Amino acid sequence: MGPPVAPPRPALPRLGAPAQPIRFEKWGDLESGGFGGMNSWKNPVLKNSWRIGDVPAMFGLPSGLFRCMASNGSGDAGFSRPQSIDEAPMPLYPWPDKQRPRVCILGGGFGGLYTALRLESLVWPGNNKPQVMLVDQSDRFVFKPMLYELLSGEVDVWEIAPYFTELLKNTSVQFVKDSVKLLRPSDHLRREPGVSCTGGIVHLESGTVVEYDWLVLALGAEAKIDVVPGSAEYALPFTTLEHALKVESELKMLERGRFGKKSPPIQVAIVGLGYSGVELAATISERLKNTGTVKAINFQTTICPNAPPGNREAALKVLESQNIQLFLGYSVNCIREVYASEDSGSMVADAKEAGGGYKKLVLELQAAQRGLQSQVLEADLVLWTVGSQSQILRLQPPDAPYVIPLNGRGQVETEETLQVAFQQADFAGWNLWAAINDRPLLPFRFQNLGEMMTLGRNDAAITANFIEGLTLEGPIGHAARKLVYCLRMPTDEHRVKVGISWFAKGAVDSLASLQTAVSNIIASS
Q1: Is the pTM of the predicted complex or chain greater than 0.90?
Q2: Domains (ranges, CATH) in the chain?
Q3: Name one GO biological process term (predicted).
């Protein structure tokens, strides 16, 4: 008996007059960050379902065609409400093989990239191995939980933001650097005689049209900073590589501008004390040392309210040891810009009146808890770490109620959502394999393995859920965290390169510390 032959693509049920397509006015940077939620295109004939958290993810096989796909968020993108567009002929993307299934993955963060690599690693019977396209506006994959190490100088950009072409060079995955303009699931397509059936089409901003049989939406969330007056103009988010490089540039400018002068210390304000805010506060405070102060504001009266107690206690201990000023139980009312006079130090709203002084930002804080008084803080740099918005806002046109987005509460990628992305990408890849080969799908069950957070160049906190009450802190926690992240890098080749680089840097740092200790002993003797 010869090898099994891939079945022809079945026809999709006609659902009446075509609905309006879903148009994306803004797509943004697909590679950045989000919650490991699931998205699906739901047809009335879909019956299979499984649940992720409190959101049901619909999976189905209408006429044998798997048209619903899981996704983890990993992108900075936005969507507008559906609009009508004029039909215009556009060039079709030339898939190499017209017979094998076509999988289009939108978004190259953890969910998108790791799903593509999972598909590549599976053994496919016969001619069923799909052609996989990965679309992302950026040319780099970003390991976001380690963006803080860029500010501390522990890592280089290539280590945590390798190029997609480098990661995928030994695979059959086709990477396309582009952004998405329009998405048309099959329910939006007219059925023309003689036209092959597809799961839908994607219009790219470059003008190319991509037909697909299976679609993976890995779009995630973007930072939402236009929350209060002045936040969008004067605050910086910290969710993408570009954000991290911008913050690094601002810090360098402040450090150079205040170097060797009798200037006031650099003041950095951080809004939000979840994981991201705490990690930023600890990293920047350690970097500035005696040249600056960090002020951290949080609406709750505690830091990291959702973190395990061990991690929260370790983080609070580090923040207190670094004399970080905590403003707990406050919300930011507005942010405005003023100028400080170099002569008198007085604050004015006009740069001319300041007589060549330097810019300052003023944050007006409103008490969120009883018994607290309103505060006014000054800062040279404001970092915003609270709030995010899903990249799939509500893809449900009024004339197409069968289009249902799940993951409506997209979150920026952090350690607590990163492990969801890893696990969902694994399930998404497997369920694609199962659907293509007519096998039963697996329900997703998230297993929380623990949480990690960096607290400085040689400090971190790790809580493992499989060992109750165990929290690794200090240098041991820091080393364990870097080891885990090294093992989670996308490919074996990149793991080896990063591991060697980190080992060499660690050896140099250890030697420098030893020399400093010996010099201190000799000097004191």
Answers
A1: no
A2: 22-223+389-436 (3.50.50.60), 231-386 (3.50.50.60), 450-516 (no CATH)
A3: aerobic electron transport chain
